[in-house]
Amino acid sequence: MTVEPFDPTESVRLAVLGVGNIGKVHVQAARAMDDVELVAVADAVPENRAYANRVGVDVVYDDYANLLRTEPVDAVVVALPPFLHRDAVEHAARRDCHVFVEKPLARTASETRDLLETATAADVLVGVDHTLRYIPAVRRVRDEYATGAVGDVPYATIARVNYGSFARPPAREPLPGWHLDGDAAGGGVLVELGVHLFDVLAWTFGDLEVLAADMDSQIDVPVEDSATVLLRATETDTRVTLHCGSYQWEDDDEFNLTFRLEGLTGTLDADEHLPDSFYGNAAKSAVSNVARRLAGREPEYFGPTYYLGAYYAALRDFLDAVRAGETPPVDGHDGLRAVELAEAAYERAERPRQPPEVPR
Amino acid sequence: MTRGIQARSLDSGDVGEAVATVAEPLLDALAGGEPSDDVDWVADTDRVVDADRVALVPDVHYPYHPSTGMTTNPDVVGALLSALTSRRPGVDPVLAVRSGPEVDTRRTVGYLGFDDVANEHGATVAVLDDAATTDVETSTGTRTIPTPLADAAVVPVPSARIDGALPLFGSLALLARTVGTDPTDATSVARVVKTVDPVGAVVDATYTFTGKPARARALLAGADVAAVEHALARLLDVDTGQIPGFGGAARATDTGERSARRSAASSVEGLDVDGLAAALPDGELPASTEPHRLVRAGYRLYTRVSGDVYPPQLEADG
Question: What's the pTM?
Answer without folding.
Answer: 0.91
